[in-house]
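G., before I forget:
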Amino acid sequence: MLKQINLNIKDFDWLIFFLSLIISLIGIMEIYSATQHQHSENFHIKQLCFLGLGLVVMFIIANVDYHTFTENAPYIYLGTIFALILVLIIAPTVSGTKGWIPIGTFKIQPSEFAKVAVILALSRFLCEIREKFLTFVHIVKASLIVSLPMGLVLVQPDLGSAMTFIPPLIVGLFLGGLRFRWIICGILLSSLITTTGWYNLKEYQKERIYTFLEPENDPQGWGYHSIQSRIAVGSGGVFGKGVTQGSQTTLGFLPEPHTDFIFSVTGEELGFIGSITILGLYFLTIMRAIHVAQTARDKLGIYLTVGCVSVMLFHIFVNVGMVLGLMPITGIPLPLMSYGGSSMLSTFILLGLIINVRMNRFVN
Amino acid sequence: MSIKDFYEDKTAIQSRLPLLQLIIVIIFFFLSAGLWKLQLIQRDYYSKIAERNRTRSISWPAPRGNILDRNGRVLVDNKPSFTLTVMRDHLATVIPSFDLLERGLKLEPNFLKSQIEKQSDRPYYLPIVLKENIEIEDISFVESHRSELPSLEIIPHPTRRYYENQVAAHLLGYVSEISKKQLNSEEFKEYVKAGDMIGKKGVERVYNRILAGIDGQKKVLVDSRGREIKVLEIIEPEPGTNLRLTIDIDIQRAAEKAFGNMAGAAVALDPQTGEVLCLVSRPAFDPTIFSARISRKEWTDLLLDPRKPLHNRATQSGFSPGSVFKIFMAVAGLQEGILTSNSIEVCRGSTVLYGQRFSCWKKEGHGKINLHRAIVNSCNVFFYHLGRRLGIEKIAHYSKAMGLGKRTGIDLLDEEEGLVPSPAWKKRTHASNWYPGETISVSIGQGYLSATPMQLARSFGGLALKGPTPVPHVVLASELPKIGRSLPAPLKQSPPFNPKFVKIISRGLWGVVNEYGTGRRAAVKGFDVCGKTGTAQVVSRETQLRNESDKKFEDNAWFVGFAPRDFPEITAAVFVEQGGHGGTSAAPIIREMFQVYFDKYKTLHSEN
């Protein structure tokens, strides 16, 4: 036992640890600034608690051989399905969607944890395939594994979170080996889904796409968020206005500054230098994770790591893209920076899994 | 599992990892480029918008100057009132609460929505007016619902108050929001901005710059809900200057009242100074309806009203002067030596000239008649013969010398020139020759002749004074220095009138009123009222041009006169559209006006 602990401390991926810690702390600083007028709510304190808890969870997850998780993947998966169904039944409807189950004073968002379950299940399924290329049956099964929880999340309705299930699937299939014909099928299928999906989108979701394309057409409605975010970021300039000095933030022009638009606050207050630095930190983390994948012991490790990376990357891409006006407005949090216990925890779980793979990279 | 299995398994997958790395790099590059664009390239643009977002420049309107009559009585001032507005940026936060607002302010459903649509093309930075002249109850409703309606603003917005309702409406004018066209016009562009209220007619418009003052400004820091956090800068407004007119409101009121339901105009001047004592045009309108944003319907109703209430008949319309013109004929005749006080004509009820029959209004004729009696009884035949002897050129010459056919120069807008016809004029406009018969029509003030009540009043004044007539004006000369203007030079007569001739004519005019002549109803006891009645057969030149068909119109009635005879202090012209005989309709109005003047100024003098 002691020998194992020694090994663990030495082999622990301190780089990822420190990167995630720094990003989280910057996030807490900006949450503090963004909620200046709501200090009674103590968002920054709560986030600090989530950080602490997250680090502990990351540590724990990292130290249990990941094979243990994947062996129990079916149970974890079923548990997640159950939780998602529970959400549909008992969760209160907030702004037209059901997403949170209240437990005491905290809220749990099962869809965040569902991603972990899907990655585990999917990775386990894919790593057991011997063929060099995936067959049609493989693709269907993999899609089913992902579609079930994704569908449950879609029904909430939470289109944004549901979309985050897709990158692990695509990346997983890609790694598994897709014949050219399946790639073509995939493209056709996704076009089909997009067009039929378009007609089924709720009005407000369509509005979001329209205003993404031309926010100036609706400066008071949906375009408002996009415009205000760009104003905040753009006016930050090279050096930013300084922590707690962001005028757009403090005067209330940014919507959801401590959650979805935390990067706008950062852009306004820390400027280009600060923003690029944070992007750099995320970049380092992601690339480090890819390196872990390259040196993983087995295919399972690779699938797990890359699955985690894809989820995190998707979040970063969509959230920062939205803040910069490059993507439509969605309700996807920025990992480690957006306020939210479920998001923090699930991110640290993902990071924990990545560290786990790294720590177990040597064949014993 | 053999080692070989491992190796092969992983290689396949691992070979696909570099592609993922590439995609990751591309994504981060894409995001960095986005940052670069916003924060480095477009930094200034966004800084400016951020600045604009959170600072608000609120216009602090300058109170408009009051308008007073010559004795300092207030004719127009400002009523403090408040307007409910919202900034365009915050419309989204307010629209959901429109139902609540409409109920609370007792508005029609969808009223607020139509307000927004109506103002959709105004400049973006101007607030949208939701409701004007809000009551105290409205204000308390909005304030008590602040949490649901945070971005509404209540702005003080003085509205113009016209005390006299319709009295002197055309003279005073009205005030309303500046139009897009006017924003760029020479008249306004130097000192106005979109949304300003400017004078649109009358004194309000001519003297707008002085009355308007200069708006101030308050620059405030606001949060995203438009709530004021801090005042950054204040520039106090410069109030408009009060303006004192030459009008005597008592005379004005008396004249307006005497008109009753009739249409027409009345003008009274001080002949020595040119000060306008009253200026009436009927029918009139209430200028106050323009202060609130007038509805399209009310505006079109006014425009399309066949009685033309917006038209200023005192200065903007020319009419046939009828028998009043005989005085001009008399002046011409005397000055040319063709006529003397002893000249006699025989009136048999009509005469034939140039192969046409020209009638007198008295069918039996006046018999043997001299100049004096011809004036007192307004004999047509006398003047027909005079006209034949004078010829149109001389008639035109003297008419123009006395001020007809050109603008008086009064400080109001769109003054009508009137018309004094001549052979040259006819050649130019109708491309035909002058017929001698037309001279005969002109001799009794018919034909192409056209004059405004203001021109006639001024001409009579000049006659009575025997000299140059000052330019009529509605603002006291003493006010002019503070507005940087001065009185224009008076009209010169050439040749100046021979006092002997003036005496003959004045006696005649006195006789019209006081010797049982046609104008006896204009008499005021103790006041030497003199004047000439007129009964013009054809309505205004505009109607002539408008109506080709031969409609039967009631004659227009005139009375133009002055008092007292020897040193006139007031001259006036009254015109009653379709009033029949001048003596019947117009003369009594003159009496009302002169009576007020007499009571006010003459009795005082006699007491001293």
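Chain B touches chain A through 46 residues (CB under 8 Å). The radius of gyration of chain B is 35 Å.

More on Monday.
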